[in-house]
Amino acid sequence: MEAGLDHQWLVGEPKWERLPDDSSQQDTKRGELSPPESWLSTTAQEGGKGWARQRLQPVAPSILMPLAWSPLFLLLSAIPFILPHRLPVDDQSVAALFFTMTWILILVPLYLVRSAQPMSEDALLSLPFDWATFAGASVIFALHILVSPILGWVSYALFWVAWFRSFRQIEQILQIPAARWLLPIDQSAWKSSSQLPSEWQVISERWTTGSIARVGCEYGHLVIAGASRGSDRFLALALLDGAGFVHDPFSEGPVGKALAISLLSQPPVADLGLEWPKRLLVGDAQSNDASPTAGI
Predict the structure, then answer these.
(1) pLDDT band at 21 (very low <50, low <70, confident <90, very high)
(2) Alpha-carbon distance 191 to 165, whole Å?
(3) How far is the CA of 236 from the CAs of 11, 48, 135, 216, 290, in angstroms?
């Protein structure tokens, strides 16, 4: 199954954009920028040597759909208290169910989508969510039982504040495409301390499929990690935001442009890498599809 999707490994699967399976992929799409001229870069169409962009599955569809439903459940959670004793079941149980669904529809998709990204970080409290306001509202809600019912409505208002602030944080992570840059290498010759600039914090001296090095920036941190496909080994470069989501370091907007003239004005390694495996190139897959002897 993996081998059959080799030619989509870099450009991404057409179904992500609701395109037919045989649709051709563009070298550069909306929101994407090319690296500075100092970089040796290539594409899945060109091949040869150099860094190539690997598009990751867009995160927006899996996050926005449940997010759009969540305020409805937060609104419904107040109805049992506005119209008490009119439901066939306990008012508080219904309110608790709707309230819980509100935050499940936000937090669970965020966590699952982030976990599915290669190189992402998985700390729960780093998710784009207004934990501080949510915690404060929860404390006030608990106090309303002992102090005054009015505090219950104060906490309810604060939960709405937490929802809107969380929405703004989520909005920010959707502005930069999900992608990373790959360079084919001979992993046996890799030595981080001698091949990376001094500003990079070395995590692993040798090549590994985990994080190899990182450097902080205003928008989070840049990470170099190891990646593999079959018998091929790569260096992978990505931008991780404060929430642990993986982003394309070369993208339209202030983040990508700032990185292109600062930390990424030069490639992080001088090694030009190996030739790109032909099986991972789009042109190779298309020529094989056109050949009457393909697969024989």
Answers:
(1) low
(2) 43
(3) 15, 17, 37, 16, 32
